Structures
1.
Amino acid sequence: MALVTIQVIQGHEAGIVLRDLETPFTIGREEENEVQLNDERISRFHAKVQGNDDALILTDLDSTNGTRVNGHYTKMRMIQLGDQIAVGRCLLIVGNPSEINIAGAGVPVDADDDSSVFLEDNELVQPAFPGGPPECPADLNALQAAQVASLVEFARTEVLAALNSISSRRKSDAGQNDEQISEDVVLPPDAWHRLQSVPGVLARYLTELANPSDE
């Protein structure tokens, strides 16, 4: 059973530190929640955190206003030390300060910041995984590995198709005047480089799924 510390850093309960919470636990407005938050934008039972070996899994419980991790809306995902969970106007951080400092984790995210959905002035979206790409799942049976590989391959081919389309468009527009070029896609350099790196990461996942380590 995993023990988790949750810090409330924004909202009515800001400053509260809930130490050594036993998983699973829930987050919401009702008293039955281990993490009870007084905010009308938060559902009665908003989200759940459960442990699986050394991993932590966050699940949105069909809340009205959604759950975000590091600025990105999610239904279910792995979380780690330093991740910031936004529910309503409240912002929670996973882990205590010493744990987060040791892990070198954490990314500042405003609970009311909607830049993950609507960007202004080409502002770059906060990384969903500031510690780097998540690890490829291990100990899958053949069917599970094939199912995950199919999802990864779908995402990889879709991203590659988008990248190839953008590259082809840029080449075809190279000889035109600025007035003749229709700007269908506008990406700042950092966002473009991040997008270009995705197929390589997904290809690595496919290799690991097809050739699992015996260790």
Note: The radius of gyration is 20 Å.
2.
Amino acid sequence: LLRAPDPAEHLVLDCEYVIEPHETGFVLKWLHNDVPIYQWIPPHRSPSSLNRMRDHVNRTFTVGNEAMHKHRALALMHPSQDFAGKYSCSVHTYQSFDIKSADLFIIVPESGFVLKYHRNLNDLVTVVCSVYGIFPAPELSLWINDYRLENGTVYEIPVTDGLYDSSVSVQLVLYESLQPDDVIKCMLAVPGTEYRRAKETVFVGACAGVATVWLKTQEFNELISIFHLFFGVPVGVRA
């Protein structure tokens, strides 16, 4: 699991192995999603990069000075979210063969994470949770206290540089699905990883029959912007 790799640094994946004294004809290969991207045949041939990773592999990177091990690691330059996936290291000689694989998750943390709610005139409360500029696409869930809401509407929008903006919204009936002082929570998760984030707020109730927007003007304007982004239609409040 790699979070927000620095493009100026190397992403290094190591491959450890043992070569028995009687073994000959050693070849090491790295594969990305089962496609060969790196090959080394020591001691007389230098490493070579292959296919789509050709310009991203540092072929001079070394691990120690042992002749049969120093170029075993895969050093990827200018890492980005495109480097995520399954990596496999295979080693074989004329006498034996072995391969090991592991999944690499690269996470670009969100640039924004917003949880808002709005009560309209007919005792419906709209809850919207939005996350911006994240990779990979996250899973969002809404909760009331410790109960997960299953009827949310999810919107997922690819944006620049392969990142995602995502939103989940739900409408709740006041005094049925939602009570004053209930805790509204949004959970963000990246599937397959332990990356988790949470936002929560306390619902501020009102007396029955009183139509009130329980948000400051600035907060409500932000909510309107969220509706414009994810629903594509203007949202208004009747006086």
Note: Residues 217-231 form the longest helix (15 residues).
3.
Amino acid sequence: MPLIAEIQYRCGEVPPLNEIYINFILHKNCFDCGGIYRLCGLSAVRKFWNNLYIILDLRMVMLKVLRKQKMREHQIRVLILGLDCSGKTTIMKRLEGEDYMEVAPTFGFNISTLEFRQWKLNCWDIGGQSSLRSYWRNYFEHTDALVYVVDSTDVLRLKEARQELDKLLNEQCLVGVTLLILANKQDIAGSLTAEDIQREMKLEEIKYHHWKIFDSSAYTGQNLIEAFQWMCEDVDQRIRLPD
């Protein structure tokens, strides 16, 4: 049976209210209002769309409730990514007040909860080796902020860093998230400044995310507090909803 005919047959006198089925129809972009009209009449078409609007309204209400609850608790889910050896884990160790002088490469992920000012940050630090990057997408859901760490001394891999960042910004689950870029390892002589990295990586081309780049150093703590403060405030302003 052709797909449109099957949809018409399943609708019967009153189009279905099953949300999964509606999502299937919308996803396939194949709902034939003309066919339903011919089979069921105009009233059935109106009932279908009225019921669809109710479902969508309910989903929006639930989303608002969850987001309000999250903001009342000041919880922010932070995803920390970047190429291998960029200093992601060292930054987190520094912020947590742990020993950051000798940090082994992350083969997998680290989870930590950081009490930062009035916010509670649920941080996911994911390994940046090329063999692990295909698994990054497993951690995208419900992310509020993305911290992207760049090794300011590794000039030869800036292009690779930008390519990986582009992939992240094109992910549907990360659309609109706050983007904090850390030009790390500023304590090392000869490192590029944040302005240099912004120019080399063409960060000004980022159009659909709130973003900011900071000079930083995991070893000296340079700008880490200021950078995370900006990130938290941006998330707070971006997803806060009126009562």
Note: The chain has two domains: 35-73, 74-240.
4.
Amino acid sequence: MTLPEPHPHTEPASRGEFAPQPAGSPDEFAPQPAGGAVDEAAREDLAAHTPDDLGRLDLPHEGWQRVSKRYIVVELIGSVITLAVLAAAAIFIAVISEAVWQWWVAGPIALITLIYMIFTPRRVRSIGYLLRDDDLLFRRGIMWQRFVAVPYGRMQLIDVNRGPVARAFGLSELKFVTASATTGVVLPGLPADEADRLRDHLVAVAETRRTGL
């Protein structure tokens, strides 16, 4: 008796092999991931940003309030006083002990102070502040720039200080004390009336933000 031969499409698959799928099965028409399209989209997104845009801090370029130009004179006077005290100390040591080592110490300090005086105008012009909706933004520095955002609701104390030289030029400085010691900001070189108005305004805004009104 002859047994019928099995149909070719019903032949069982051997172990470790998958049975062939019939033509027109759903797997045949399953969408394949378009890896090339994803890579192309990533390249286009990266090309849309220039090297200057990548990693750049997004800060406003308008609306900054600068400190008074008279603060340049105040800083220069402070540097001159430092040089005068340094020279007097070096001369005093030379007179009483006839030593020369003090000049090796005073020389580099005087040179650094002179360089500091040369860059004082640019350094003062780099100081500014900006009142935003939720915080006060402070900036300073030429080569090493510093930007600090002080939220109004975290201001605990706003102090107005006037040194003898600054007071002679009608200037004051505002000191902001917050809940975090790392965000303390000193805003120097403000005219006295502007410093008082800014202090009163910030105190009122801070009280409003803390009470949630």
Note: Helices lie at 35-47, 70-97, 101-118, 120-125, 164-168, 192-211.
